[in-house]
Amino acid sequence: MSKLPNVTTSIFTVMSKMAAEYNAINLSQGFPNFPVDERLTQIVSQLAHEDVHQYTPMSGYPPLLAKIATLVKTAYNRNILPDTEILITAGATQAIFTTLLALLKPDDEVIILDPSYDCYEAPILLSQAKPIHIALNDDYTPNWKIIANAFSDKTKMIIINNPHNPTGKILNESDFENLEALLEKYPDVLLLSDEVYEYITFEQKHLSTHTRTKLLDRCIMVSSFGKSFHVTGWKIGYLVAPEYLMKEIKKAHQFLVFSVNSICQVAVSKYIDLVDVNEIGSFYQEKRDYFRALLQNSKFELMPCEGTYFQVVSYAKISNENDVDFCKRLITDYGVAAIPISTFYADGKDLKLIRFCFAKDNHTLEEAAKRLCEI
Ligand code: PMP
Ligand code: GLN
To answer: What is the pTM of this model?
Structure first.
């Protein structure tokens, strides 16, 4: 008897595996393929010979906690307490899983906005709580009326993801005003804010929950160093939450991982001093612009991309196939792997849209675009 009868292997695993089998250019799963910053690899080489190989304190390596507090202060002018309000996690995935497992009770309802990233559902179901999927509008803006209608006395939490994977949309001031007004009516509802792409926005600045004073006493904010520092395989991130929630989250965290990979924590804490997070957005903006320019003469229609390192395109002018079949054929016939957007919808809504990851070196983007322009 499965506890998760409807959960299947993640689409990222499926597509990356198929890309490898067919030797296709992998623009599916979101990870960079360019070299890691040499300053970071040098820190790691040096650390390998130092005394950094044993458990750190459960919440995290204290200098790293302090530096995250400074980063949040510099980036968002928010004061957070390193000892009680920050937890280092094995990636955002573990931060999210742990939060949901620690805070949800059976029959609680959790509002999820579709298309949604795939790691929210399983921990909700394992907590015997209920995911309530509400679709975003077709232009990927939230429909606050429909969202408000989904709230009830069973609602325990709403999850937002901003900047948004897979759509590349970001929330604006009016979205936050709507959210704040809604949550004011439901004082016990918590907010889980997945902001793993917080530093990857383009024309408009990212509006973080860190800056929304009305939300802070009930918000769990999640970030990922894997995304911010181009090291997705390190699986290191953190969450920020008020102490009364953090106490509960730590109860679960200590038995899931206890403490996170020590050498990565120390390396990140040293590297933070060398990085200007404001440059991450412009770095990816160049890649976005380059990739979009390369696809300009293709038959794909490019959707807006305000943040993240994902470009959504419509293939409606090319084929009527469903998006999963189209992605499979893109691999087998054209040697490029993408992610079908329907897999981010609980009801499999298929708008003939697929997602490409442009966190790749220019040569990879050029070769992929060449193949895509031949379709
Ligand atoms: N949330 C979103 C929206 C993501 O795209 C990802 C993938 N990086 C995660 C969470 C998980 O991040 P991590 O790899 O740090 O676990
Ligand atoms: N976040 C990555 C993406 O959206 C996938 C990470 C994973 O494979 N779990 O592509």
So the answer is: 0.98
